[in-house]
Design goal:
This protein has 170 residues and is mainly α. 69% of the residues lie in helices and 3% in strands. It has a two-stranded antiparallel ribbon with strand order 1-2.
Amino acid sequence: MQRDTLEQALFETLNIRFDQIDARITQWMANYGLTLLRVSVGIVFFWFGALKLMPGLSPAEGLIRESLPFLPMGLFIPFLGLWEMAIGLGYISGRFMRITILLMMFQMLGAASPLVLNPEAVWNAFPFALTLEGQYIIKNTVLISAAMVIGGTVRGGKLIADPDAPKEQA
């Protein structure tokens, strides 16, 4: 009987300690997660844009050329690279977020255009087997979702680790 009580007390102590650690980790994620998300999205856009300024380095260059043959690639690819770098700088700096997200959404429409304009480059077997290029396009849904989360904070919104916790005095 006493052993059961000791085991139960130990279990409760461990459970309380786990809950305290979990609360700290959750609070840390709420405090820093949006900033890390914003900066990491910015790095991706800036980096991929910079690659477009160096002919032959962007893995997307071939797909762009195949999907949009009616555009002057000598001008369009560097323009797209600068556009993406501007998006990246917007995210990294955290400034002009509404414009940054708008620019990104227009860029995402273009990035998704091979789904319609060049489907043979996207699908091995429609609708499930994507090519590597198709996977590159579909992963953009994660970036779009990230933009929506970040956009949900442009008016001062925040992530709250525990909505039932007492509010801190500002």
